[in-house]
Amino acid sequence: MKFKELAELFQQLEKTSSNLKMIDLICDFLKKTTPEEAKLTAYLLQGKIAPDYKGLELGLAEKLVIKAIALAFQQDVGKVEKLFKELGDLGDVAKSLAKEKPSSLEIQDVFNDLKKIALTQGKGSQEKKLEILAIILKKSSPLEAKYIVRSVLGTLRLGASDMTFLYALSKVLFGSKEGKKKLEEVFNILSDLGEVAYLALKKGKKALEKVEPILGVPIRMMLAQRVKDIKEIKENIENEIFVEVKYDGERIQAHLDGNEIILFSRRHENITNQFPDIIEDLKKNIKVKNAILEGEVVAVDKDGKLLPFQVLMQRRRKYDIHEYVKKIPVKYFLFDLLYLNGENLLYKPLKERKQKLESIIKKTEKIEIAKYSVCSPTNEDEIEREFLNALKEGGEGVMIKDSNSVYESGVRAWRWLKFKKDYKEELVDTFDVVVIGGIYGTGKRSKTYGSLLVALYDPEKNKYFSFTKVGAGFTDEELENLPKKLKKYEIKEKSKLVESQIEPDVWFEPKVVMEIKGADLTISPVHTVLREKIKKGGIALRFPRFVRWRDDKSPEQATTVQEVFQIYKKNL
Ligand code: AMP
Fold first, then answer.
1. Whole-model pTM?
2. Which residue CA neighbors atom 16 of ligand 1 most closely?
3. 370 close to ligand 1 (CB < 6 Angstrom)
4. What angle do CA 87, 91, 95 make, to 5 degrees?
5. pLDDT digits (tens, 9 = 90+) for 170-221
6. CA of 468 to the centre of ligand 1 (A)
7. How many CA atoms lie within 13 A of 79 on its CB side?
8. Topology of 430-571 in CATH?
9. Which listed residue, 206, 229, 268, 529, has the most CB atoms within 10 A of its CB?
């Protein structure tokens, strides 16, 4: 299929902010593609060329793209820069310079070239990237050029999420949105939208039943619901429970295949290089053919005492890793086993997965099983004791897990519950919110933001709803760094994924997640969380304070409007 048709789809998607309309547009498009083209479409729609876990990113610098546009359309760089100033978007600049011509580019051609651009590295790579881009732009029509430029810059922002695509795929395959659940299950295991599209369209519905974990491919992680009171546990779980320490670190999924080990973060980044110490211990002490394990890595001091998450974040670096291995030692607390010696354990009950996990782990200086005890969900005293023990251990609370539950990949299920110390403090709750806007500061804060407008995510609508403005809780250093940290997410207009009545001075793409605390939930005439449901206004947070950045979370992993509604109802 011609890339021109895909560019036309992009244009239509850009014009709508209705998720339902987007689903229909993508559905109609997928009906015309081959399975191979559907796979490429899945990536290109989000400006990607591979699933996230492969870490292949485009993101070319504006300067380089300006040069490529100049070369492709035989203009001098000064003229392109001038046009850029006028139009404010390099995609529009390319569009204005390209000539209408019969389409010659196939989707596959464009995809191959974009991939080549991403893969070109090392000495002289900038020149090569520039050349490849210029050649493809030369062959493009105006519309094609616009979207190719936005793709390489990483500014495509069509607003079609993974879920939008899965709904569309379901309509193609099942004739309705009913099949989305099944497709999502498959996506949760393969973490690759393109692969799901290919499998579904090439092999049909039956193939979806047989999907197994693949070593080296991250499985989307199971998440927990929060409870504010120990009494709520028995309302949700009938079976025996594991009450486990909730460590304040980073979740890591380890894939062991013979001597090869890969570590994935919650966002599916390959973080193997950051933890040579963990890799060494895993190699020495786990003797299996292959396995997929999960646990939490936590920073510790020289006596083995657990340290907060912020300390661990210093290990997130490209350089000086070995120095930091010594400076910031860590421990890996394992709590789940998803795959062992060729056997898929996702659908086995947790108690069986835990038994198997314990049979393959030998405790070392760096690796141990997460501490837990087995309780009845009705034994509130015992759960409370375990909670206090967990705090003494250095945990931030407990995870309560149904011993009979299967591993519900990618789902925030009521089979895992989290109960944190913050929830116990009266009227205090923590939320992971997404930064959507900045309001300039005055006086002492004149060089930075006075406050940030933040939002909650609604996975059903694929939108971010404004929730509160956060100005308190930042250290002076954090405040000073705000403009630098947020600069690359600045956009000229409100993202179409954002619902806000407040007009901040600067809009941001909804990408950055931070944890905040607040006093209580209230109804606000200006905020937009669940405004349609509540009518009088939206749910908002009063007296918010910044707690920490959550760079380990993607915006879709932020607190949802549905979660906040549950808390709001209980507090009424
Ligand atoms: P939250 O980040 O507050 O949504 O809590 C869920 C996170 O807690 C998981 O993604 C893990 O990173 C972390 N965690 C810490 N200890 C455990 C545990 N024992 N079991 C499961 N998750 C844990």
1. 0.90
2. 246
3. yes
4. 85
5. 999 999 999 999 999 999 999 999 999 999 999 999 999 989 999 999 999 9
6. 25
7. 11
8. OB fold (Dihydrolipoamide Acetyltransferase, E2P) (2.40.50)
9. 529
